[in-house]
TrEMBL record:
SUPFAM superfamilies: Porins. It comes from Paraburkholderia elongata. GO terms for molecular function: porin activity. PANTHER family: MAJOR OUTER MEMBRANE PROTEIN P.IA, PROTEIN YDDL-RELATED. GO terms for cellular component: cell outer membrane; pore complex. Keywords: Cell outer membrane, Ion transport, Membrane, Porin, Signal, Transmembrane, Transmembrane beta strand, Transport. Residues 7-27 are annotated as: Disordered. It is found in: Cell outer membrane. Its main location: membrane. Homotrimer. Residues 8-22 have a biased composition (Low complexity). This is Porin. The keyword Ion transport applies. One of its GO terms (biological process) is monoatomic ion transport.
């Protein structure tokens, strides 16, 4: 998707959208043609460091005013420019004072400035940098059977079925010679009540900064592990479901999916992708009873996480392999191996994968238990093994309709029962998801899922040995 670029010089201001012309040259504009421009700019809001733009015939009418699509289908985003950049916001703040700024006088601002405002991307001459605010609001109505020890059903409102509602800031700054500074700040939230996804932190999904260039990208902070990042972008048929009844396999076996206090490297070399990470500890999702806080004097690797991923794309085939090792504060370990493949044929994508975990920390028992289990100190060192194949497909039935199915399976050994004994068991989940796009930003969906457990896995469901879930939802991207 192309981006509109605002270009400025000492004598003119014009907008370009991959070669399309949005307005006449400023030099030829007549003062009589500025009436509409004056009305538009005068009615705009320049407060709080942001420019609100009215709708324009140049843009699709269904788009909101701060995310516009030109007649050339060029999506642009309104962002704030520092005053020192002498960008359009600086110009707009002087609009009511005879339209002075960037070398333009009175009527010289005219038609092309308004056209540029309507295709604003706010990339100024002094430094090619941008900050983008984006995200998604997704809410669903869900019903679950056998959702307590008395096998009662539950009807409730929930977050999204596929990915949690979230918003975030993503920024880049061009440092020259192909080097860029990048940052990411992202927060999950609960649209059903307006609360934060995690009341204890502002950016629970991501908070990192780094450098990118021809060598790849190195980032520091809280971020997805390479194993999880590749899984959700390429190899999971549901792109990682957010209901715990659907996402239990990758969430538990991959140790919480994101890592705090981490250094991550990602690079694409032709069809080969490389990802590596090291975390110093304090991984949030697992920092409680399992003892993964890290930062233990004299124990450099306490609470640490190390992750390595390789994937390759050739034609319609994608393949990947990864390994991850997590240590607790007592040097017990959880090791995960992962193999994945995806094949595209016509409008169908076929997925298959395998997750294998060997856990001496008690982590998996703790994360998956819906019923009471013994204290974590009693189940460390039990050498639990999980063998988890998964697969599915996604079918683009029509440009606006997508059907997806997935099955997740786990055979476990040395898992902990409610009484503290060890045993074997299995669990599988089958999911069907139908999504329909009402526009480029708005979708509706319906989903059905079924869980079945036996043996030691019985503690992973709250009631009977099976559970069915049904949900419908609405999501909007912004």
């Amino acid at each position: 998707m192309s981006r509109c670029v605002l270009q400025s010089s000492s004598s003119r201001l014009r907008a370009s959208t991959s070669g399309s012309t949005l307005a006449e040259s400023t030099g030829r504009a007549k003062k009589s043609k500025c009436n509409a421009a004056q009305q538009i700019l005068a009615s705009s809001s320049f407060g709080s460091g942001r420019l609100k733009l009215p709708k324009s015939p140049l843009c699709d009418s269904h788009k909101q005013s701060n995310t516009l699509t030109t007649s050339q289908n060029c999506k642009v985003t309104v962002v704030a420019c520092p005053r020192k950049s002498r960008g359009l916001l600086f110009l707009a703040q002087y609009a009511k004072n005879e339209y002075r700024g960037i070398g333009l006088r009175s009527a010289g601002i005219c038609c092309s400035v308004v056209a540029a405002a309507l295709s604003l991307s706010c990339q100024h001459v002094s430094a090619q940098s941008s900050v983008t605010l984006g995200g998604m609001t997704d809410i669903s109505i869900r019903y679950l059977t056998n959702d307590d020890a008395q096998n009662d059903g539950r009807f409730f409102m929930a977050n999204g079925a596929v990915i949690n509602s979230h918003f975030g800031l993503h920024g880049t700054e061009d440092l020259g010679n192909g080097l860029k500074a990048v940052f990411e700040l992202e927060n999950n939230f609960n649209p059903q009540n307006g609360s934060m996804g995690d009341s204890g932190r502002l950016f629970d999904s991501a908070a990192n900064v780094g450098l990118s260039g021809d060598f790849g990208a190195v980032t520091f902070g809280r971020q997805d592990t390479p194993l999880f990042y590749k899984l959700i972008t390429t190899f999971d048929p549901l792109t990682y479901a957010s209901y715990p009844e659907n996402s239990w396999l990758p969430w538990a076996l991959e140790a919480g999916l994101a890592a705090d206090n981490s250094i991550r490297y990602i690079a694409d070399i032709g069809g080969l992708s490389v990802g590596a990470m090291y975390s110093f500890g304090g991984n949030y999702e697992i920092s409680g009873p399992a003892g993964f806080s890290g930062d233990v004097p004299g124990h450099f690797t306490a609470g640490s996480l190390a992750n390595l991923l390789l994937s390759y794309t050739t034609g319609a085939l994608d393949v990947g392999a990864g390994v991850q090792q997590l240590r607790d504060n007592s040097n017990h370990r959880q090791t995960v191996f992962n193999l994945d493949a995806r094949y595209s044929v016509s409008d169908i994508k076929i997925y298959t994968g395998w997750l294998y975990s060997q856990d001496n920390t008690g982590l998996i028992d703790t994360l998956l238990a819906e019923q009471s289990i013994p204290d974590i100190s009693r189940i460390k060192g039990t050498d639990r093994i999980d063998n988890g194949p998964f697969g599915g497909f996604a079918w683009q039935v029509a440009p606006s309709a997508l059907l997806s199915t997935a099955i997740y399976y786990d055979h476990m050994q040395n898992a902990t029962t409610a009484t503290g004994a060890l045993g074997s068991g299995s669990r599988y989940t089958v999911v069907a998801l139908a999504e329909y796009s009402l526009s480029k930003r708005t979708e509706v969906y319906g989903t059905v899922d079924f869980n079945k457990v036996n043996g030691t896995a019985a503690v992973e469901l709250p009631g009977r040995s099976n559970q069915t879930g049904i949900a419908v939802g609405l999501r909007n991207f912004f």
